[in-house]
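re: that chain from earlier
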Amino acid sequence: MHDETRLLHSDSDDEPFRALTIPVHRASTLVFPTVEDFLTRHSRFYDGYSYGLYGHPASRALAGQIAALEEGSRAIIVPSGMAAISVVNLALLRPGDHVLLPDAVYAPARSAAEGFLSALGVTSTFYDPLAGAGIAKLFQPTTRLVWVESPASFTMEVQDVPAIAAAAHDRGALVAADCTWASPLGFKALRHGADVAVQALSKHVGGHSDLILGSVTVGDEALFRQIKDASRYLGLGVSPDDCFLAQRGLGTLATRLERQTVSAMKVAGALSGHPGVERILFPPLPGDRGHALWCRDFTGASGVFSVVLEPNRDAALAAFLEQMSLFRIGASWGGLHSLVAPARLDGSRSVVPWQGAGPVVRFSIGLEHPDDLIGDILEGLDRYRPLNRVASA
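^ sequence. v structure.
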């Protein structure tokens, strides 16, 4: 079955009503017909229903679709993308263990490794995201987990996931991949060697900037149960209404991503060569440093890319972004509305310092007409550059 078809069909069935859309059951407490059913309710933790916190028809249906899209056997729905990252860490790491993370990793995941995991006795090493097979030299006897994030959410480094996974598996470590940028339609992390695939469903899957959810997908039953147990001990439950919204988003995911990618290519092309833009960071573009790996491993993209602007004062960046008429300043991506997010990367890396002299700005292209978005950006650059000339005079 093609992904576009799978997005619209699940195994969910809610007899006798049998609605076409996912059923929403708002309940904390389930009732049982017999004493024996009640006393054995915990045996249904992994597959059935025992208490609203641990799963309901909406979360089970969504998990099934996500697992199929990721080409895994089982998935867990959790309250956020960061919750997905944390539950994997807490399920798989113990005091004395060591974890490897890319230097360009999602900033909250970096902070969690440096603070939260460190306090639990887990040591972390950050590595050059472009290390590929060279990551092998960083393994320690206690390395249990390697994270990849491809592309990186601001600077768009594409990682050689198969090479990293091979190095990890040779040393008995697992690989967890955060591949939210391309969604499961554009990158199948498990197919390329990852043991765990994490998504922030808040972004492309939700698609409307109105929910916060995450997913964890695996291909191994024992690993699924290990992570599912951790989610139970952490009390991670999800709202049936949010799961309904996420499954609604799945129905249009392929169409939205196709449109947003085409628009992003047009917008990025219009910015190429602009005197205010030093570099465009977008793996689908020929000439991008990650383009070859993107062509090899990815089957799709998204409307999210970054630009490195010519150096300027903070006031010029504010003039550029704060007066935009269509782009709004926001931290997420993947919704219907276009967003822009500036980044401060000085001091954010510990292995390979960021080399760009100018500000980095990330664009999330929505469903507006690309010509209107191009006009909004070009007008912003017109505000940005005169301030730069004044500053340089």
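Residues 388-393 have pLDDT under 50 and may be disordered.
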